[in-house]
Amino acid sequence: MSPAFGAAFLWLLTTILWWSGWREESKERLPHWAVGVFLAVWPMALLINVKLTLALTFNGAWLWTLVAIVVLAVITPSVRRWMAMSSGVLLGAVYVLISRLAYYPSGFSHAYASWLTAMIVGALAAVLLRGVSEQVLAISAAFYLSDGITAFVHSSMASEAIPISRAMDWMEAWWVALLSARLGTISVKATMELARRWAPRWGGRGGQRW
Q1: Residue 85 pLDDT class (50, 70, 90 cuts)
Q2: Distance CA 43, CA 63 (A)
Q3: Within 10 A of 156 (CB to CB), how many other CB atoms are there?
Q4: N or C terminus of the chain with fewer C-beta within 10 Å?
């Protein structure tokens, strides 16, 4: 599966999940219409390449995601924003480390390295943070940090640099991590609610009133 097709498939999956019930799971002051606008524009932006200079071209979906993340960071309360960014730095370091190790003969399949690494980042984001906004900011900061480090390494040691991600690879990994974080959070929440619901019945019949 090409990264562009994978990113588009993951976008479609996220859109279906968001409008089929995930929006009710969000207890934050995150406007549903804003999320809808982001999801609606994203596939159209994916088909556009924005040429800033003769040597610098960005994909429209990558830029649209960057704009959405900046807006989200601005409207997020300061304490939550900096907590998410600090977590993103940690996740970025983990992402860079695992991504680099995936290119060494350690038994880590290169075919699944990007997806598995992104899933690990998403799972860690779910452990560290609970809110949608914080998870999105942390994951985005992690991937932008990893791309910055990769660009620096590539510029200083071009002959030895390993291209960890490009625009479509970045978007695909971003969607994988985001879905992993939300699925992990919602699964844990559902498990805890189910455990609380069944806790009185597990306590024994002696303590129940019939």
Answers
A1: very high
A2: 12
A3: 9
A4: C
Give the pair of three-digit tokens for residue 82.
């900096």
Selection from 116, 6, 100, 23 nearest residue 61 by Cα: 6
Residues ≥6 apart with Cβ < 8 Å to 100: 162, 164
Structure confidence at residue 24 as a pLDDT band (50, 70, 90): low
Determine how many CB atoms are found less than 10 A away from the CB of residue 56: 8
What residues contact 176, with CB distance under 8 A and at least 6 apart?
10, 114, 115, 118, 119, 122
Contact at 8 Å (CB) between 133 and 76?
yes
Query: Which is nearest to 38 in space by CA: 133, 122, 114, 116?
Result: 133
Phi, psi of 102 (to 5 degrees): -65, -20
- Which range has the top average pLDDT, 1-5, 15-19, 147-151? 15-19
Longest Cα pair distance anywhere in the chain, in angstroms?
78
